[in-house]
Input
Amino acid sequence: MSLTIWLTGLPSAGKSTLASEVGKLLDKRGLDFEILDGDVMREYLTKDLGFSRLDRDNNVRRIGYVAQLLASHDVIAICPVISPYRQARAEVRQLHPPGRFLEVYIATALALCEERDVKGLYAKARSGEVANMTGIDDPYEVPEAPELTVDTGQRTIEECCDQIFALAMARLDSLATQRPPSQAGTP
Amino acid sequence: MSLTIWLTGLPSAGKSTLASEVGKLLDKRGLDFEILDGDVMREYLTKDLGFSRLDRDNNVRRIGYVAQLLASHDVIAICPVISPYRQARAEVRQLHPPGRFLEVYIATALALCEERDVKGLYAKARSGEVANMTGIDDPYEVPEAPELTVDTGQRTIEECCDQIFALAMARLDSLATQRPPSQAGTP
Output
């Protein structure tokens, strides 16, 4: 039994980079993990989906379902997924046993994301070539109680990674030392 | 790295029962597994899909993708899925590294499946209440070269399970003792 590290944030916030770097840290520790990248998943699992609210939510739900499947075994699921809506993220949290879903908000400022514009989508959104761009003409609902917030504009990628890695390690430790609920309170 | 046991056959052929019983045998050996049941997956991963050829194939592809993800870690994926079309099954095989996809044809005769009619769907198909029922008014393409064929009309569930389990164990052993391809032929 493992856990899911869910990286939510605007396009170009640094989610995929962080996922990959956190993966390297886990690998060094000999921990098994899988990166379920929103963009990659769209090739396999969610090819049929567009960018309406319903489609975005279904994208999040499907990835969340696969994440909890992996996490229910010994695989840490790392999910860099925009996942703009609170409700869908909350649903994915509910799919997981208590404590096994870590919501990490990648709080990089829109201006910086737009400056990076890794896939050139912000430019296309500004010129009207692309519609439903999260942060421009599509909403992003900031997490209200994420387990962690990191800002790649304020800290280096390495520092952000260290924070995410430390959180995951602490949580795994704490889950491992918890007594099963049925035995709670017995001497 | 593990493998996928793909159980294909008509509705009521015994796929889910076999999946569950094979799971128990794996459990006794301390092997980690996950059952990706076609019907259960339709609740989570493939809720949007109907029973057209395209939808059935997408159902098979998505389950196959998740199966190979699990199998790429140390989880044996057991997939009881009608998966009526050869082409889609072949695509799922291709998603797996060589040797790590075991196609098991549950060859229970249509007459017996219809007699069992676990979900009452054959009756509904015969009365015209349900359309696109595999085996009645929708095709089932028999596997041409499955790794194993079992017939729950000719053998007990226990015997069929033993065959599937033995195949999986033999394959895991053989994969574990294979040299990595890059070293093949070196002394």
